[in-house]
Amino acid sequence: MADIVYGIYEKRLVQQAGGRTPRHVGVMLDGNRRWAREAGFTDVNDGHRVGARRIADLLGWCEEAGVEVVTLWLLSTDNLNRDAAELQPLLEIIGDVVDELAEPGAPWRLRIIGALDVLPVETATRLKAAAGRAAGREGVEVNIAVGYGGRQEIADAVRKLLQQHAEAGTSIEALAEVLDVDHISEHLYTSGQPDPDLVIRTSGEQRLSGFLLWQSAHSEFHFCEAYWPDFRRTDFLRALRAYGIRHRRFGS
């Protein structure tokens, strides 16, 4: 009976969204550790393991809704300061997730974004190899943000821009004359992709914490009370409904 009720409710959520679908959805998969503690687990990485199993579900919901790009924030640069006893299992979980998304028959295209040079070499190599195996697919493009920080991304973009123009012999003075936001955007980790229309954060926290700082200037935000391991299709459809009924002003 509950399944029937939820099915009817979900159809209504889809109707209320009015057919307005975000092209790019960013998701902050937050609350795994708190979920594990409240569920009685002694190892907080059990929360990450349960949360990891929700990722393919989310991508399926996005594909069904017509979303073209999904950015998943799995590990921030700040997370790298965690105790090794917690960090190493988390890196293994992330590696397992990305390998699963790259399996033959999976439709996802993968892009690894973040400062990969701050990750252990074996982790960075594993992630890049998985993305290579998923190249050329036609499904939803999935950005896996690992070792990611918004300020770091902007700093990296400016550094790449300066290096490019230095190699071309452009002086700093000449670059300063023409530099605009598009020059920086071209060197972001998400270069070539649309900016996120909708950013979802689970766990009830209501802040960006540095996620897609540059790209989210005109994004709509949806904060969900559920911890990531408890995030359901209904929660996703509520986020799409919230997006669908808003009047986007793009900063005006």
UniProtKB/TrEMBL annotation:
Mg(2+) binds at D30, E220. Its cofactor is Mg(2+). Its EC number is 2.5.1.-. GO terms for molecular function: ditrans,polycis-polyprenyl diphosphate synthase [(2E,6E)-farnesyl diphosphate specific] activity; magnesium ion binding; Z-farnesyl diphosphate synthase activity. InterPro entries: UPP_synth-like, UPP_synth-like_CS, UPP_synth-like_sf. GO terms for biological process: polyprenol biosynthetic process. Substrate binds at G31, N32, R33, R34, W35, H48, S76, T77, D78, R82, R201, R207, L208, S209. One of its GO terms (cellular component) is plasma membrane. It is an enzyme of class 2 (transferase). Binds 2 magnesium ions per subunit. Keywords: Magnesium, Metal-binding, Transferase. PROSITE patterns: UPP_SYNTHASE. The active site is at D30, N79. Belongs to the UPP synthase family. Z-FPP synthase subfamily. NCBIfam families: PRK14828.1, uppS. Catalyzes the condensation of isopentenyl diphosphate (IPP) with allylic pyrophosphates generating different type of terpenoids. Homodimer. This is Isoprenyl transferase. It comes from Actinokineospora globicatena. The gene is uppS.
